[in-house]
């Protein structure tokens, strides 16, 4: 599929009103492609990653000096690649 033939692309989750998920919940939805013309597709996959990052700095005074403590954390909740179309050539 040539990029020039794609007018728009969107992922629409089934739970539009509340797009917050917790561990073990299934994320489901639809892939919408707005194309300028019909195209032949052999493979289409969606890659998604859920992650969180946090960083903060704390300071405290010890006598005449200020001591800083630097905290940070990063966690990957999921990393998934899902094939939507695979193998055979499809005209969309």
From TrEMBL:
Q: Which Gene3D superfamilies match?
A: 2.60.40.640
Q: Name one Pfam family in it.
A: Arrestin_N
Record domain Arrestin-like N-terminal: where: 17-86
Chain ranges passing through the membrane = none
Which family does the record claim for this protein?
A: Belongs to the arrestin family.
User: Which protein is depicted?
Assistant: Arrestin-like N-terminal domain-containing protein
């Amino acid at each position: 599929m040539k990029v020039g033939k794609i007018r728009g692309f969107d992922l629409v989750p089934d739970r539009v009103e509340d797009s917050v998920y917790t561990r073990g919940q299934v994320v489901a939805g639809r892939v919408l492609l707005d194309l300028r013309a019909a195209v032949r597709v052999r493979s289409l996959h969606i890659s998604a990653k859920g992650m969180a990052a946090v960083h903060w700095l704390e300071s405290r005074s010890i006598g005449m000096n200020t001591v800083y403590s630097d905290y940070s954390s990063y966690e990957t909740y999921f990393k998934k690649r899902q094939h939507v179309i695979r193998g055979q050539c499809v005209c969309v």
